[in-house]
Design a protein that fits this description.
Shape: globular
CATH architecture: 2-Layer Sandwich
Strand order of the largest sheet: 1-2-3-6-4-5
Largest sheet: 6 strands, mixed
Order of helices and strands: EEEHEHEE
CATH class: Alpha Beta
Number of strands: 6
Structural class: alpha+beta
Number of domains: 1
CATH topology: 60s Ribosomal Protein L30, Chain: A
Strand content: 25-35%
Number of helices: 2
CATH superfamily: RutC-like
Length: about 130
């Protein structure tokens, strides 16, 4: 099976030693995306909805590199740092997925993410056509 590990253009370069995506055949395993624009600047400080939206934008950029789109997502895991962010993140998700089919999702409330200003992180699995 053909495999690759890559940091596509359109998303920030990771500061740590990891790849944004691992591809095995037509399946993409996408690392948790934070609210960072391609230059590495944080987007939506203090705004969970804006951060979730940026996470989805990053997922879309990674999928576009492979000729795909958000419709190729089959599973997401969403991490938030406070339960009160749930409706804000859900609102951003509703913008991205206004109607079925919806990818499977797990929501996890965590004590913290990579840095204190990050409120949301979303990782994903996608299968290309």
């Amino acid at each position: 099976m053909d495999r690759e590990f890559l940091n596509p253009s359109g998303v920030h370069t990771p500061q740590a030693h990891y790849s944004h995506v691992g591809r095995a055949g037509k399946t993409l395993y996408i690392s948790g995306q934070l609210a960072m624009d391609p230059s590495g600047a944080v987007v939506g400080v203090g705004d969970a909805r804006a951060q979730a939206r940026r996470c989805y934008d990053n997922l879309a950029a990674i999928l576009a590199h492979y000729g795909g789109g958000l419709r190729h997502l089959v599973k997401t895991t969403t991490y938030i740092t406070h339960w009160a962010y749930r409706p804000l993140v859900a609102a951003a998700r509703d913008e991205i997925f206004p109607a079925p089919p919806y990818p499977a999702n797990t929501l996890v409330v965590v004590q913290g993410l990579a840095e204190p200003h990050f409120l949301v992180e979303i990782e994903a699995v996608a299968v290309l056509d």
